[in-house]
């Protein structure tokens, strides 16, 4: 099971690095066209949460001896589903996808792909990852602690900040006629 964890962990870290490179490239493209960054004050906490999560899941999994949980196959299935949803989300947003809140004034909000069904699919993906990866390997404390931290940060800070930024300079309200309540 150590091999399974190591492979999954390395792939996840490589995916995150690739996403950061893509986000940086998309940020430059958007800012060259007049995009505005919002919510920069809380972005560092998101980075710390994700870094802390990766360290915690690795530490707890090693300390538990790479034990698979009794629900590992279900959690692995959900984790892989989240990865497919992530690819769909990134492809749907194209050059507008980012890890930061960066909005292009007067841009038409993307409403295709998973955005036809849910406003913030990336946050659902992150929540699924934070819950499922540790539960594959019996790292229950990591799953509980980081699910609570993630929900508190995303639901209470990040999503309202993103919706506010989108409402101010794009057609977000027109596309999603019932804004999420704070």
UniProtKB/TrEMBL annotation:
The chain crosses the membrane at residues 42-63, 70-88, 123-149. GO terms for cellular component: membrane. One of its GO terms (molecular function) is protein C-terminal S-isoprenylcysteine carboxyl O-methyltransferase activity. It is a multi-pass membrane protein. It holds the Pfam family ICMT. InterPro entries: ICMT_MeTrfase (IPR007269), Metal_cation-efflux_comp (IPR052527). GO terms for biological process: methylation. Keywords: Membrane, Methyltransferase, Transferase, Transmembrane, Transmembrane helix. It comes from the Bacteria. It is found in: Membrane. This is Isoprenylcysteine carboxyl methyltransferase. It comes from Guptibacillus hwajinpoensis. The lineage of its organism: Bacteria, Bacillati, Bacillota, Bacilli, Bacillales.
């Amino acid at each position: 099971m150590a091999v399974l964890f190591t492979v999954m962990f390395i792939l996840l870290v490589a995916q995150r690095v690739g996403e950061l490179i893509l986000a940086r490239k998309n940020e430059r493209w958007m800012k060259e066209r007049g995009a505005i960054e919002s919510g920069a004050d809380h972005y560092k906490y998101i980075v710390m949460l994700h870094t802390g999560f990766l360290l915690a899941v690795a530490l707890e999994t090693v300390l538990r001896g790479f034990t698979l949980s009794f629900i590992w196959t279900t959690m692995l299935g959900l984790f892989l589903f989240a990865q497919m949803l992530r690819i769909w989300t990134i492809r749907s947003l194209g050059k507008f996808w980012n890890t930061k809140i960066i909005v292009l004034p007067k841009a038409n909000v993307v409403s295709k792909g998973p955005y036809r069904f849910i406003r913030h699919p990336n946050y659902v993906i992150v929540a699924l990852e934070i819950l499922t990866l540790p539960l594959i390997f019996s790292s229950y404390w990591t799953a509980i602690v980081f699910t609570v931290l993630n929900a508190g940060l995303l639901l209470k800070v990040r999503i309202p900040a993103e919706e506010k930024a989108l409402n101010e300079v794009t057609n977000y309200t027109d596309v999603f006629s019932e804004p999420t309540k704070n």
